[in-house]
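Thread title: Can someone regenerate the structure for this chain?

I was given the following input by a collaborator and told the matching structure tokens would be attached. They weren't. Posting the sequence so someone can regenerate them.
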Amino acid sequence: MNNHRQHHASPELTRNQTLVFDVLSKAEGPLSAYTILDQLRGDGFRAPLQVYRALEKLLDYGMIHRLESLNAFVACAHPQCHNHDLIAFAICDQCGQITEFSDTAIENLVSAWGLQNGFETNKTTLELRGLCKKCTEH
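Best answer:
Regenerated them for you:
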């Protein structure tokens, strides 16, 4: 039996990872680790460490993203985003809507800067904060 996992194939998730991913997938917006813990107490989650371990693996698998400015997590909106060197989020400060996108022009600018400055990037996450179209129209 071949146990080698295909790169980018759907990983085999543990029960805890599956529960955490499901909570994030169903969430209207980003969730903190403590909010996730509160929602999973009925499923046997007792310690923040259980949530953090699951989040860490889901981040490694590219199934979720961490929004640094909010210290919160979201399920990946684009399963193919691991093909991009840069993932961007537009976060509305009023309604909390988050739009995940990638843009090759921005990717190219960041890569060019890295090359010019001898900086080797492993991950680039761009967070735009402001008001979405709906909120600016009100």
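Residues 104-117 form the longest helix (14 residues).
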